[in-house]
Amino acid sequence: MVRSKRALVVAGILLAGPMQAHSIDLPGQPDRNQLAREGRINELQILQSRQGRIDFQAEQQRLREQDRQIVVPQVPRPEVPVMKSSCQIELYGNIYRRVCR
Fold first, then answer.
1. How far is it, in rounded angstroms, from Cα 23 to Cα 33?
2. Is 98 strand, coil or helix?
3. Nearest Cα to 59, choosing from 19, 14, 26?
4. The whole model's pTM is what?
5. Which of 29, 64, 70, 71 is nearest to 50 (CA)?
6. DSSP state of 39
């Protein structure tokens, strides 16, 4: 039962395609207003930084997807003439020597 439910959730996410997620509430996460009222500022800052990271990652993913869709025309390499070397191989017994001019 758990596997089929998990498979349905994964299939739904894949079929939905890329979507922006600016605010993700994780289960078991305390309410921000409640934290501020109770004076637990450290926990509020932790939650805000976590949400900031999630937002940043979502924005980066959106920008990467946008960059993938842009087609950049490739510039052909210029034809550059190549000169052949004017080196001659001279043989002296068992020794090969190159003389380049």
1. 15
2. strand
3. 19
4. 0.38
5. 29
6. T
pLDDT at 87: 81
Q: How far is CA 53 from CA 5, 38, 86, 95, in A?
A: 28, 24, 62, 67
What are the residue boundaries of the structural domains of the chain, listed by start?
31-69
SS3 99: strand
pLDDT band at 33 (very low <50, low <70, confident <90, very high): confident
Q: In angstroms, how far is the first alpha carbon of the chain from the final one?
A: 82
For the cut 70, the answer to whether the pLDDT of residue 23 exceeds it is: no
The helix (run of H) or strand (run of E) holding residue 89 is: strand 87-92
Rounded Cα distance, 98 and 101, in Å: 10
Alpha carbons 44 and 30: distance in angstroms, whole number: 9
Q: Where are the alpha helices (DSSP H) in 1-101?
A: 2-16, 32-38, 41-69
Residue with structure tokens 């605010």? 23
